[in-house]
Amino acid sequence: MSEADEVFGIAEVSALIGLAPDTLRYFERQGVVPSPRRDSAGRRQYTTADVELIRMLVHLRETGMPLADIAQFTGADDKAADPAGLRVELLTAHRRRVHERREELDRALDVITRKIADFTDRIPRPVDLLERPDCTIAYEVQGEGPLLFLVGAPVGRAGFAALAHELAGRFTVVTHDPRGIGASRAVPGMAAPTPEVLAEDLAALVDRFTGGPALFAGTSGGAVTLLELATQHPDVVGRAVLHEPPLVSLLDDADLSARAAAAFKAAEADPQRAVQEFFDLSGAGHRTGPDQTPPAHMALPGLPVEELDKNRYFLGRMAGPAVFYAPDIEAVRRVPVTLCAGSLSHHQMARRATQALADLLELPLTDMPGNHLGASTEPAAFAQVLGRLLEP
């Protein structure tokens, strides 16, 4: 008997698809799945084609297609003048709903990730302190193996907690709160958190551990910090993996530059507006594949007071010097650097900038799991790829 002629009983189909026989019977009565032929004893006989169709219909149901639409899809051959056209119309409408739902889930995931970082930051745990001339830097160490510094801006220890945990089995992982972030509180008279100042803080932290080269992975503004570290202290960089440095300075886009500058200028007086404008121009909260572009605008909910205060500092003082930083390309060429970007960051500001940097350095661009926030939203997958990139 060929595969096309193979038939299955309802119990076999139930086992193959993962639906209880009673559920299959219910969907059959509702017109959601087609009624199979029956043998002389009245037992259902499903063909391979029936099973594949049911499997697809189950996927449609799991992704939220209304039962009425699934019934229309199933019965299209009998009732529609153009069954293929009707099915395309139904699937197209459902794809739009799925995309909208995915955007909602992505926004919810980002909020959940931020809250995990917030609450992680409040958990009492040992923290070491590095005294700087104008502030104190909080840092944390875990794991065993080669020395690896995870560097962010504004991301600090809390934002890297999950990724550091994933990497601690292979590396001695050092995370720190950049000045003005987390436990490295801003203090009167503290120098502005420019890439140059942040790189000097990092160099002092590295010196606390080793007089020789170490491994580094930086994401977003932290990747910009590593570009400056590579310029001023190339001897400490054994290898650096840079994930999506958002260098607007490398993009020939005057409108984007003006919008970014306007968002940063608004941060002190109206951080909610600044966050919205930066979210829209960066596209960083979205998940976009090669054939997708982030929406031009998506309204954000009102931020709590603590988030507004954080963004007065981040967008008002830290983000501008990072995105308008001009890297010394010849200096960066002298250190082992790997450039990477989110596989779901296409057509977003930071990935475009990273591609421009890769072109200048004549380096390939490696895809990483997730979007601009992949290091925190997909830590296990991100750590797996990052570990390979850090290998000698």
Would you kindly provide a written description of the structure presented here, covering whatever features stand out?
This protein has 16 helices and 11 strands. With 392 residues, it is of the alpha/beta class. An 8-stranded mixed sheet has the order 4-5-7-6-8-9-10-11, with helices on both faces. It has a 3-stranded antiparallel sheet with strand order 1-3-2. Helix 14 (349-361) links the parallel strand 10 (337-342) and strand 11 (365-368). The protein is elongated and about 90 Å long. The mean pLDDT is 90.
Fill in the keyword field for this structure:
single chain, 392 residues, alpha/beta, eight-stranded mixed beta sheet, three-stranded antiparallel beta sheet
List the helices and strands and how they pair.
Elements: E1 7-8, H1 10-17, H2 21-29, E2 37-38, E3 44-47, H3 48-62, H4 67-74, H5 76-79, H6 83-122, E4 128-131, E5 136-142, E6 147-151, H7 161-167, E7 172-176, H8 195-209, E8 214-219, H9 221-232, E9 237-243, H10 254-266, H11 271-282, H12 305-323, H13 329-333, E10 337-342, H14 349-361, E11 365-368, H15 374-377, H16 379-389
Parallel strand pairs: 6-7, 6-8, 8-9, 9-10, 10-11
Antiparallel strand pairs: 1-3, 2-3, 4-5, 5-7
Helix pairs in contact: 4-6, 7-16, 8-9, 10-11, 10-12, 11-12
Summary of the model, kept short:
This protein is an alpha/beta fold and 392 residues long. It has helices at 10-17, 21-29, 48-62, 67-74, 76-79, 83-122, 161-167, 195-209, 221-232, 254-266, 271-282, 305-323, 329-333, 349-361, 374-377, 379-389, and strands at 7-8, 37-38, 44-47, 128-131, 136-142, 147-151, 172-176, 214-219, 237-243, 337-342, 365-368. Strands 4-5-7-6-8-9-10-11 form an eight-stranded mixed beta sheet, sandwiched between helices. It has a three-stranded antiparallel beta sheet with strand order 1-3-2.
